[in-house]
Amino acid sequence: MGTPSRPRVVATDLDGTLLRSDGTLSPRTRAVVSWLEETGTPVLFVTARPPRWLDELADAVGGHGTAICLNGACFYDVAARRTIDFTGFETDLLTTVVHELRAAVPGIAFGLERASGDLVDPHYATPDYVVGPGTPRRAVQDALDEPVGKLIARADDLTHDAFLALVESTVGDRVHLAYSGALGLAEMTPLGVTKAAALARWCANHGVDASQVWAFGDMPNDLPMLRWAGTSFAVANAHPDVLAEAGSVTASNDDDGVARALETLR
């Protein structure tokens, strides 16, 4: 394979990919991201994180100021701390899905990512999803009066694989079910809402073709984006499915794999 052409846009996942395992952006990575921005190549963060988890990275977003959050359900102006686009579930469908999953999975607990912020069931508790002290707690079916971009669910009494299989068999093809690395956590977005779809829309609005995009990821929820981009990279610590499909493999997130790949552009 020859050396891919210089990208017009770099799209990268955050946790497990651009960020180290402790959640920090290394000085080496920060430097190469800043250099790319200065030379006219925007670096777009494309993440499962909700907008509120992006504020700490506001200084690294660059001139474009935008991040894609919630696995593609939300465009967020990080510097202004303002949601600029939000794609939510159809309310009747979401109500039905929540009802059917409660019946199929005893003890299931839900959380919602809404335009105004998060909300969780009263019994929702897990180290894999940080619920802040100010997070509202009430039955999620009573809180569907505004757009919901992502439905999250878990059941502590089931193994990860068994839980995801049960969720998938219940929701079928009515929603998009993704896995971003948190064990035991099912993440659902409206059908058609993926990192790839959101990235393609952003690129189309900026006159950028898929062939001009480099994309980096580590988990199955990154696969649609990696398949769409003209050039794709998995970090060495990626999920086996991602390692198998990515066009190239770079070093791990803790060894500045994204930065190492981007430094070849200097």
Verbal overview:
- The chain has 266 residues and is of the alpha/beta class.
- It has two domains: 148 residues, Rossmann fold (3-Layer(aba) Sandwich); 100 residues, Hypothetical Protein, Haloacid Dehalogenase-like Hydrolase, Chain: A, domain 2 (2-Layer Sandwich), CATH 3.30.1240.
- Helices cover 27% and strands 23% of the residues.
- Strands 5-4-3-2-1-11-12-13 form an eight-stranded mixed β-sheet. Strands 7-6-8-10-9 form a five-stranded antiparallel β-sheet, covered by helices on one side.
- Helix 2 runs parallel beside helix 8.
- The longest helix has 14 residues.
- The model has no long low-confidence stretch (mean pLDDT 91).
- It holds the Pfam family Hydrolase_3.
- One of its GO terms (cellular component) is cytosol.
- One of its GO terms (molecular function) is magnesium ion binding.
- This is Cof subfamily protein (Haloacid dehalogenase superfamily)/HAD superfamily hydrolase (TIGR01484 family).
Top-tier CATH class of the largest domain: Alpha Beta
Counting helices, strands and paired strands, the structural category is alpha/beta
Q: Which architecture of the largest domain would the CATH scheme give at its second level?
A: 3-Layer(aba) Sandwich
What is the count of structural domains? 2
Give the fraction of residues assigned to helices: 25-40%
Protein name: Cof subfamily protein (Haloacid dehalogenase superfamily)/HAD superfamily hydrolase (TIGR01484 family)
Organism: Sanguibacter antarcticus
InterPro entries: HAD-like_sf, HAD-SF_hydro_IIB, HAD_sf
Pfam families: Hydrolase_3
